[in-house]
Amino acid sequence: MAGAGYRPDARRRQVLQFCDMKVSITINGSVHSHDVEPRTLLVHYIREHAHLTGTNIGCDTSSCGACTVHLDGEAVKSCTILAAQADGGSVTTIEGLSKNGEMHPMQKAFMDNHGLQCGFCTPGMVMAAIGLLNENPAPTEDDVRLGLEGNLCRCTGYHNIVKSVLAAAQK
Ligand code: FES
Ligand code: FES
User: How many helices and strands (H and E) does the chain possess?
Assistant: First the structure.
């Protein structure tokens, strides 16, 4: 039985601290090391620990794709991966795409072809689109529609998004 000095909150804190684990992830070329709970999702690590808020959270069902980033060169939904699973890995987010102040060709294609309206889905859409072209550099319109089916947009009707990706493929 717990004695008079037993403090459940302190005990809980101790247990949680004990459970924290060190995770190191290179994000956009910089190493970020933090102690996190094992259940921390990669998207929360990126937003709350690395303070990179370009990667959005649009659902809690792994269905919208707003959280898409590249992990070791592959497009992934960062809400479906634990930060611990990315330990030692290399992540690129939308903030890491531009080089020397120049937008990535995919970002430029979205801008030139009006591939966005409110912009909420756009970071994830751009990261997924780059992943798509990495795998298939010369996609057909159907390939693009199929390849981006895991990314939802509430605004654009998708037409200009597909146009943007096809335009980027031409560059
Ligand atoms: Fe990751 Fe919606 S926030 S799929
Ligand atoms: Fe608004 Fe896609 S541009 S959700």
Answer: 6, 5
